[in-house]
Specification:
mainly beta, 6-stranded antiparallel sheet, about 120 residues
């Protein structure tokens, strides 16, 4: 049970630790659970500079890294770190009703950048 009032949470956003303020208007049960991450939504303008020349489009939904679909954030991190061992990686993307595979340079591939927003599909 969380008492009413203002509470502060330490969170990691885009790889940086930050403080989040949480206001609870009345005593309440607050449950925090890990989000099932089954996709990464692409924000083209927020991609790292090295990926601006890639074929990724704004709104693309990345559903697999190197041919492997993921179900949580930990899997995304492991797959992306493994992918960085090679010069390029294949990303499976849903775009406008179609599924396509894109090959991108891994030197600037960072799933924790603002250009890849974790989502649940």
């Amino acid at each position: 049970m969380v008492q009413s009032g203002t509470h502060f949470l330490w969170v990691s956003i885009d790889g940086e630790s930050q403080i989040m303020e949480l206001t609870v208007p009345g005593a309440s049960e607050v449950v925090f659970e890990p989000m099932a991450v089954t996709g990464l939504r692409v924000d083209r303008e927020a991609l790292p500079l090295g990926l601006h020349d890639s074929d990724l489009a704004n709104g693309d939904l990345v559903v697999a890294i190197a041919g492997t679909e993921f179900q949580n954030w930990q899997q995304v991190q492991v797959l992306s770190q493994s992918a960085r061992m090679e010069p390029t990686v294949s990303l499976t993307v849903h775009r406008a009703g179609a599924t396509i595979d894109l090959e991108i340079q891994t030197a600037h591939f960072r799933v924790d950048s603002a250009g890849f927003r974790p989502v649940r599909r």
